[in-house]
Amino acid sequence: MHLGLAVAAALALGCGPTSSSNGKPSGSPSDPVLTCERVADVCRLDKSRLGVCVQSKTGVGFACQSQH
């Protein structure tokens, strides 16, 4: 019984906050995010390289991975 309530609550609340209000990935090549908050955001690896946010290898949090 409690499992059904937990599933219903999870579905009602969604997957947590997104990086943008419309649900699309945030960041762009001209304005990348500095901190990854979700998969597919465009991020900055360093001054001259961009990356894409991916799930970290530990499964907790996100990491900026090189596009090349």
Please give a structural write-up:
The chain is α+β, with helices and mostly antiparallel strands and 68 residues long. It has a domain at 28-68. Helices cover 18% and strands 25% of the residues. The N and C termini lie far apart (48 Å). The model is unreliable at 1-19 (pLDDT under 50).
Task: Note the main attributes of this structure.
single chain, 68 residues, alpha+beta, three-stranded antiparallel β-sheet
In short:
This protein is α+β, with helices and mostly antiparallel strands and 68 residues long. Helices cover 18% and strands 25% of the residues.
SSE topology sketch:
Layout (H helix, E strand, L loop, with lengths): L1 H12 L28 E5 L2 E7 L6 E5 L2
Antiparallel strand pairs: 1-2, 2-3
Sheet of most strands: 3 strands, antiparallel
The computed structural class is alpha+beta
Mean pLDDT: 75
Radius of gyration: 15 Å
Number of helices in the DSSP assignment: 1
Categorize the overall geometry.
Answer: globular
Report strand order across the widest sheet: 1-2-3
Q: What is the helical fraction, as a range of percent?
A: 10-25%
Question: Element order, helices and strands?
Answer: HEEE
The share of residues in extended strands comes to 25-35%
Overall number of strands: 3
End-to-end distance: 48 Å
Give the uncertain stretches in residue-range form. Answer: 1-19
